[in-house]
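Hi R.,

Here are the chain sequences for the assembly we discussed:
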Amino acid sequence: MGPLATVDFLHKLVRATPADADQDHVPLVVRFCPEVPDRVQALLHGGPSPAPALVAAAQALQAAGAQCLAMPCHTAHAWYDELAAGVGVPVLHIADVAIAAAAGHPGGVGLLCTLGTRQAGIYRRRGPGVAWVESSADEQDRCVGPGIRAAKLGRLAQACELLGEAARALVRRGAGVVLMGCTEIPLALTEAEAGVPLVDPTDVLARACVAWALEGAR
Amino acid sequence: MGPLATVDFLHKLVRATPADADQDHVPLVVRFCPEVPDRVQALLHGGPSPAPALVAAAQALQAAGAQCLAMPCHTAHAWYDELAAGVGVPVLHIADVAIAAAAGHPGGVGLLCTLGTRQAGIYRRRGPGVAWVESSADEQDRCVGPGIRAAKLGRLAQACELLGEAARALVRRGAGVVLMGCTEIPLALTEAEAGVPLVDPTDVLARACVAWALEGAR
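And here is the predicted structure of the full complex:
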């Protein structure tokens, strides 16, 4: 839902497409939906539910010809079930593709995400067997939350520093890989700053969309 | 129509939006249309007309709720009149906003563009009073065409070198500003390489969209 994260997703999707000419690319229809109410507010503070706006946007995409949907926003996946039930086409789940990409790394899987994503169990529910390593309440308040907000505002150096501190804390508690569970995080955080391999769910979701399109084209 | 150029346009639009929160952004609906036939082929070599696909895409955007349209592809503006006639909402013209941005610079206005854009008169027809400085046939074949193709393929350093050489040739013939009349060019060319101020129509068009949205919101 963060518009820069959507741009990042589209950039990664275009770069991941094997193409020699404009005509080789994947047909896309995209909505930037600022009308969707704040997801974290809804989950944590009883704000208005984003579900109706999300389902309406998904149905509009389907009406515009989309045959597969993807949503480059983790927190919005708290309403994945309503959304998937509201449309007649497959909806890729960002946590499923990200968890698959994190598999095979030694040690636990560190998770950086919004408090909303965490409390909704976006990752835990899709990966109950994963050895998750999560931020402490203090790390969340001091580093992860402010880091995500800084990335949303384009303050990427500040965001990288805050998120790097949070990532290194996960590594000290046994994470062998860090999953960037909010689409704003890959805009800022680097592997050099984190000190371990990072999984970028935006990139993995973009690649899954391209694979879906190529598969369908065969 | 080049998908990286569309991503660049969206990035510039998001960055140009005054926003403190996701909810402050402009609602957008976007189509990436690889099904549109090659514009330069159609203009120069009798290839199939892109007009039906362009009009269909514009109508689909209007059906999806778009109240103002913009097309971050210069060559496709050869079919601007058909497109504007086929929808019931305003369509911003990339040359109009770019010509306005180039005004006020001393000297001629250098124009780097595809042969299709040039032969269709996308810029000359919208700016008949402008002192245009254009590439020679040799510069077009040797630098501009290959530079644009390199940018489309993501070979940005090579593209910057080729396009820089073409820009400097325009400056030697009196250009005081260079208008980057193909949306792939700003992906690669820098003012340092060109040696004069550059007008980036992608950025100018993005700002015009934001201004339109803010104006409408008042």
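The two ends of chain A are 31 Å apart (CA to CA). The interface with chain B takes residues 1-4, 6-7, 10-11, 14-15, 17, 20-38, 60, 63-65, 152-154 of chain A (CB under 8 Å).

Let me know if anything looks off.

Best,
T.
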